[in-house]
Specification:
- This protein has eight helices and eleven strands.
- By secondary structure, it is an alpha+beta fold.
- It has one domain: Restriction Endonuclease (3-Layer(aba) Sandwich).
- The strands form three sheets. It has a seven-stranded mixed sheet with strand order 1-2-11-10-9-8-3, sandwiched between helices.
- Helix 2 packs across helix 3.
- The radius of gyration is 21 Å and the shape is elongated.
- The termini are far apart.
Length: 233
């Protein structure tokens, strides 16, 4: 596993997009995507450029994971990406010294899972406040698919929990201050204290273990700069 930073190259990623999200990558993922999968890279950068974190969907009880993840998924769906299950089938073929086929072993099928978004040779999952075990599944699958030649690179979109928690607490406190004293409740409507959900730190921990092998992986995380700037209303 080689942690790289090709996303910092303005010829690879527009600096305006770079400024709005946190990134980490392995095996020059951003440069690989731009060079090998230019159409898919254009889709990804356009989504990152246009998506804005809206407090009305973000800081709403019961809607945190679903609303935001579905919004991002829909943006990719509008660009032709599809939720897809990837299965792998491997078959051994026995050959003689003369390269004559002797026998074929029964095929072995490795059942995959539904990746949130798939297009061309790129797999992309939106892991927003899901169980952090999802990352183990994602990265293991990316490795298998890359080694089998199915994908050229993979992308995970998540959040930087620590910085967004600070932003949420500030916005919620400002909102409560506008309410009558007897109606104020300074407790956030969503739980941002849990350490067992998907976020940038959890992804980085697994990436640095090298669980995805040589598969180029780009992790993108929402930060306060991803917020649309609108206060809670």
């Amino acid at each position: 596993m080689f942690e790289t930073n090709t996303y910092e190259d303005p010829n690879v990623l527009d600096p305006r997009v770079r400024a709005r999200w946190a990134f980490m990558e392995t095996s020059s993922a951003a440069a690989v995507l731009r060079a090998v999968c230019p159409a898919e890279w254009t889709d990804i950068t356009q989504v990152l450029q246009s998506f804005q974190l809206d407090t009305r969907r973000w800081l709403r009880a019961g809607g945190n994971r679903g609303d935001i993840a579905q919004e991002i998924d829909q943006m990719f769906s509008d660009r032709g990406w599809r939720e897809t299950r990837v299965d792998l089938s491997t078959q051994g073929i026995l050959l003689s010294k003369r390269n004559e086929e002797i026998a074929r072993l029964p095929p072995t099928v490795q059942e995959g899972y539904l990746v949130d978004n798939f297009k061309g040779r790129v797999a992309l999952d939106v892991e927003w406040n899901a169980k952090d075990g999802n990352l183990d599944r994602d990265l293991s699958a990316y490795r298998a698919w890359h080694e089998a030649g199915v994908i050229s690179a993979a992308v995970v979109i998540t959040q930087d929990r620590a910085s967004l928690k600070q932003l949420a607490e500030r916005l919620w406190a400002e909102y409560q201050a506008t309410l009558p004293e007897d109606a104020r409740n300074y407790r956030l409507p969503i739980d941002l204290n849990t350490s067992t959900t998907t976020n940038l730190d959890k992804a980085a921990l697994r990436v640095r273990r090298g669980v995805m092998g040589t598969c180029p992986l780009l992790v993108v995380a929402a930060i306060p700069a991803t917020w649309n700037g609108q206060p809670i209303r």
